[in-house]
From TrEMBL:
Classification via NCBIfam families: MocE_fam_FeS
Reported cofactor(s): [2Fe-2S] cluster
Taxonomic classification: Bacteria, Pseudomonadati, Pseudomonadota, Alphaproteobacteria, Rhodobacterales
Protein name per its UniProtKB record: Rieske 2Fe-2S domain-containing protein
Signal peptide coordinates: none
Species whose genome carries this gene: Paragemmobacter straminiformis
Molecular function GO terms recorded: 2 iron, 2 sulfur cluster binding; metal ion binding
Segments forming domain Rieske: 5-101
Superkingdom assignment: Bacteria
InterPro entries from the UniProt entry: MocE_2FeS, Rieske_2Fe-2S, Rieske_2Fe-2S_sf
């Protein structure tokens, strides 16, 4: 059954940046957009299984640090090769300065 899990504090992420969040065997990235919205998606690139936490956030996407594949952090859609498999996204809520994701 899905539940809301605290991932981080809002102050842990600068606008237009991301952080890694591990829960059990899953790795996520939590993204803070330049518009101060928060998003969560799988934290491993679907191309070569590289952690996205060292990637760049730009123009609504996260860029993989290994081969520059990009993913739309709102939808998880693979936007640039070599990645062609979308990533899963997760609902996010912000409450009292804390970021929660529904896992």
């Amino acid at each position: 059954m899905p539940n809301w899990t605290r991932a981080c504090a809002t102050d842990d992420i600068e606008p237009d940046d991301l952080i890694r969040f591990d829960h059990g065997a899953q790795t996520f990235v939590i993204v803070r957009s330049e518009d101060d919205e928060f998003f969560a998606m799988d934290g491993i690139c679907s191309h070569e299984h590289v952690h996205l936490c060292d990637g760049l956030v730009m123009d609504g996407t996260v860029e993989c640090p290994k081969h520059n594949a990009t993913f739309d952090y709102r939808s998880g859609e693979a936007k640039r090769a070599p990645a062609c498999i979308n990533l899963k996204t997760f609902p996010v809520r912000v409450q009292d300065g804390q970021v929660y994701i529904e896992i």
